[in-house]
Predict the structure.
Amino acid sequence: MSIFLKHKPTLRFVGCTLLLLLFCGGMHAQINLSVKVLLQGAVSGTSMTTTLNSLGLIPLAQPYNKAPFNYSGSESVASIPAGVTDWVLVELRDKTTPSTVIASRAAFVMGDGTVVDLDGTSPVSFATVAPGDYHVAIRHRNHLGIRTATPQALNSAATLYDFTNAQAQAYQNPSITTNAAMKDLGNGLFAMWGGDGSRNAKTSYSGVSNDESYLSSGALGGVLTTVLSSVYHNADYNMNGTVSYNGVNNDESFLTPGVLGSVLTLIISQHL
Ligand SMILES: [Ca+2]
Ligand SMILES: [Ca+2]
């Protein structure tokens, strides 16, 4: 009897220690995410321009705090790291109900397509999200969002998920027959569709909330010779820091023939 009594405190101590370890392990569980995407508007060759950054136009605080994103995160930096193309919004979504967003982070996409945290090099950290299976969605202020074709097993190891090397890497919504989830760049690379200035999950030239009107009537006030220089604007479809309808590298030409291929009735839809 005395032997059992003697060991009880030890057993309790061991039990408490195990619980504490499990608790601490849970506290430190997190996901580090490594993803690669291309934005059609910034594509140049096999990578992307960093013009907005070199012109000093990228805001220091994340720009997804407005509709349709409404992300209230406080991500900001003292200066934009070298090599950044733009801010993107990264979402972890439920593995069985992918319309359910479990966690969001604003992050940077670099010229080579890698999505990184605010230091410009580290994988994107979801510090309070437990490892597990999730869909990963990438959204951008004037591109159509994409998500993983299948749930991914995510943990702290940050295994790269590359959306750029195959169309099948992105979820293909069977109800959308007009276009694939990503733009086929024709060189083995795939990019998020550009030109959605009106942020209605469609890139279009005609119809309600179309992106031609967003550019011509909205951004340029109907005066098609107007040029907005040195701006960070959703109507800057080719991401060169200028909003224009005429002249070299104008945004109207990016929309058509660029995205819509001169088919002015075509509507490119988001598969997210
Ligand atoms: Ca649109
Ligand atoms: Ca432009």
